[in-house]
Design a protein that fits this description.
Two copies of one chain form a homodimer. The first copy, chain A, is α+β, with helices and mostly antiparallel strands. The first copy, chain A, has a single domain, classed as 3-Layer(aba) Sandwich (NADH Oxidase), CATH 3.40.109. Chain A has eight helices and six strands; from the N terminus they run αααβααβαβαβαββ. In chain A, the strands form two sheets. Chain A has a four-stranded antiparallel β-sheet, sandwiched between helices. In chain A, strand 5 (about 210) and strand 6 (about 215-220) form a beta hairpin. Chains A and B meet through helix 2, helix 3, strand 1, helix 6 and strand 4 of A and helix 2, helix 3, strand 1, helix 6 and strand 4 of B.
Chain lengths: ~220, ~220
């Protein structure tokens, strides 16, 4: 399926590197059909130098904004850097060397931050903030995909330095870094990374993650 | 927009309660346009008694399976109960009274479970498992939406009891409960819940969650 034929997106005619590289197959090899926005999602390391349009950036954040959260606490916050600005450089500087190798190709770098404390029950912790920020970033990612953009999340960065650089208060926690952009040419990557960029996507079998009756007992349902 | 006109879904002609209730408006009131699967998503409490088709159930799990995770650890596991079976009853029994009030209308109840430990670095904790399970459930939710189903996640249940009921090993953590089904008639709900079912969805303003330069400084980008 040509990426430009995706149904459901606001995708409007961008060229996508995937369509040019016949030796790259990142489509999820599913047993059961899933929505194209989920099936075609993957986390690239080579981004195009094309800047992300501001309206698409806002749409991604809007998608995160409307994601669900425990008691509607909305514990997600985002710090956004565009290539060339100081925020981008500060975020980049916190990355481990491996991530610095490739993340410099991304036109947008963000940090996701979670609110450890509840706003509805003053003084009490929000036990669900990490989970809920994960969900918000997933929604952001699906929105990005529908606009022809790709997202690559990272845990490999100095979260304490990031908190310091941006004066993140103690009741908030820096959780992940997020690279966003259009797909680029894998050939610009370091040889080791290039290999990963061409590799097929892999997942453990479905029956090792869905159980019934007892944890570990594969769920079997008649089709 | 009629829910049956959604682009991008495999949605195929189910009637949806939303289309029958002109006094119900759950569409996200966005400033920036987002994908219909994200915009129309909400967490209902009144489900139809129509069972979820097995292929749709598998598609939801397949979507979770292909979601991203730190180092591709895939820390998500699911325990799945269908109305009428023992797993369903056990999950239901762990719910707080408030959730029991409405969740009995859902044809499917699941538990999400996270693996605390890394599989790639034996003996080390996976610092990202909660976040990654959150993402997997978001992907599951979007897939459900594209099949005309709705999801309502809960934190209000006895997680220790759930772990005990299903022999969940100590290195796994029960995280959330998940109700899935087709939209039902809000009129069957308890009066307090009925009011919530008709209420508009609300979110904090975008500029309180997207920052630049410094945490708390609203990001402004020219459109």
């Amino acid at each position: 399926m040509n990426i430009q034929e995706w149904p459901g997106g606001t995708f409007s005619g961008q060229t996508c590197y995937k369509t040019k590289q016949s030796n790259m197959n990142k489509t999820a090899k599913t047993t059961f059909e899933i929505h194209p926005l989920l099936r075609e999602r993957w986390s690239p390391r080579a981004f195009s130098n094309r800047m992300v349009e501001t309206d698409k950036l806002f749409r991604m954040l809007e998608a995160a904004r409307w994601s669900p959260s425990s008691s509607n606490e909305q514990p997600w916050r985002f710090i956004i850097g565009l290539k060339g600005d100081e925020t981008y450089m500060k975020i980049y500087d916190t990355f481990v060397e491996f991530n610095q190798l490739w993340a410099k190709t991304a036109p947008v770098l963000m940090l996701s931050v979670g609110h450890r404390m509840s706003l509805k029950n003053q003084g009490k912790p929000n036990v669900s903030y990490v989970y809920d920020v994960g969900q918000a970033v997933a929604h952001l990612t699906i929105q990005a995909m529908s606009d022809g953009l790709f997202v690559h999340q990272m845990g490999g960065f100095d979260k304490e330095a990031a908190a310091r650089f941006f004066d993140v208060p103690a009741e908030f926690e820096v959780l992940t870094a997020i690279a966003v952009g259009y797909i680029g040419d894998p050939e610009v990557l370091h040889p080791n990374l290039k290999k990963m960029e061409y590799a097929e996507r892999e997942r453990r079998p479905l029956d090792t993650m869905m159980f019934r009756t007892k944890f570990g007992t594969p769920a079997s349902f008649e089709l």
